[in-house]
Specification:
By secondary structure, this protein is α/β, with parallel strands linked by helices. It contains eleven helices and 13 strands. Helix 6 links the parallel strand 5 and strand 6. Helix 1 packs parallel to helix 2, helix 1 packs across helix 8 and helix 9 crosses helix 11. The longest helix has 20 residues.
Length: about 350
């Protein structure tokens, strides 16, 4: 099948392109390279032996989106990753986030609903829509809480845009995947996470500290109501997450979806504290990490981990990698990138 992957050169996008190609799909990537590099294309090709088609343009340019779909009228499915994702930046520049993450979604959906054939669409959503959930693990039925940031709000509004469109567009089948915390890198170490500037997320901060790029990791708060006082998250290996996209797409391609808009949590189902992550990293890297406990980071929730029963049962998908495996792959990638 011919699958469009927007943001296909980014962290999760590139791993998903590899898994799609491994399943025999023909992939077309659109990426504006604002937070990715064109050489990821060569790295994907090195892993899979097949170069995906690549078009570099910005999806905010509506006429280019129209032109693309006019030229590619045989696309069987779209996986839409392209979006801005830095929480802090979204607070500083909300309109950039609303434009980047929502206008692009609207333009793509306009194309998908403007044709006579059916369209299959997978959306990158986030566990951020749950905020601090009242019950753990978090099921898909947990209420969506008021967003903590414009970034989080774009995921909530994005889901609403798709849900409302599916109500009236009978030919549109869509799935939103609510990711928990994606980490790790491809086992080949050809592709992985490459944050620009100082990393905001825990795992790249840890690996950059261990490699000597950062002096010390700050652990944000040890006075949360958890076993060791640090926050709990559900860290999922990016390859497991990529595979969830492939099975979700397959569900739509084979008309196995229960309704034309569905939502799935994608996590491991296991929560780990920040200190447990550090311990695991120290074990797999065989070295001590320089860290100190500092005050809480504003906006952090105490604990989030997924109930993955729905994805396990309906998609037949389950995360396979352990935290050790995921951190080991992130460390191997960091060493290769800086080597
Ligand atoms: N943390 C530290 N030190 C750091 C970085 C993070 O202690 O230098 C802690 C955080 O306080 C948190 C945990 O590590 O407890 C994970 O933090 P991340 O920033 O890696 O991940 P978040 O769960 O905060 O963020 C994720 C996604 C965002 C999304 C957000 C919504 O990365 O895209 O969930 O809650 F918006």
């Amino acid at each position: 099948m011919k699958i469009l992957v927007t943001g296909g050169l980014g962290f999760i996008g590139s791993h998903t392109v590899v898994e799609l190609q491994n399943k025999g799909h023909e992939v077309v990537i659109i990426d504006n390279c604002s937070n990715s590099s064109a050489d990821v294309l060569d790295r994907i090709t090195k892993i899979t032996g097949k170069k995906p088609v690549f078009e570099q343009f910005d999806l905010r340019e509506k006429n280019k989106v129209q032109d693309f779909f006019n030229r590619h009228d045989d696309i069987n499915g779209v996986i839409h990753f392209a979006a801005s994702k830095a929480v802090g930046e979204s607070v500083e520049n909300p309109l950039l986030y609303y434009e980047n993450n929502l206008s692009t979604l609207v333009y793509i959906l306009q194309q998908l609903t403007g044709k006579s054939s059916t369209a299959n669409f997978i959306f990158s959503s986030s566990c951020t829509v749950y905020g601090q959930a009242d019950e753990l693990p978090i099921t898909e039925n947990a209420p969506v809480k008021e967003a903590e940031s414009p970034y989080g709000n774009t995921k909530q509004i994005g889901e609403e845009i798709i849900r409302d469109t599916c109500k009236v567009a009978s030919g549109l089948n869509a799935i939103s995947l609510r990711y928990f915390n994606p980490i790790g890198a491809h086992p080949s170490s050809e592709i992985g996470e490459l944050p620009i500037g100082v990393p905001q997320n825990l795992i790249p901060y840890i690996t950059q500290t261990a490699i000597g790029l950062r002096e010390q990791l700050s652990v944000f708060g040890d006075d949360y109501p958890t076993s060791d006082g640090t926050c709990i998250r559900d860290y999922i290996h990016v390859v497991d997450l990529a595979k969830a996209h492939v099975v979700a797409l397959q569900r739509l391609l084979e008309n196995k979806n229960a309704s034309n808009y569905e939502v799935f949590n994608v996590g491991t189902g296991t929560g780990s504290t920040v200190l447990e992550v550090i311990q695991s990293f120290e074990k797999v890297s065989n070295q001590k990490l320089n860290y100190k406990i500092v005050g809480r980071r504003e906006g952090d929730i105490t604990a989030a981990y997924a109930d993955t029963t729905k994805a396990n049962n309906e998609l037949g998908w389950k995360a396979k990698s352990s935290l050790d495996d995921s951190l080991g792959s992130a460390w191997k990638w960091e060493q290769k990138v800086r080597g």
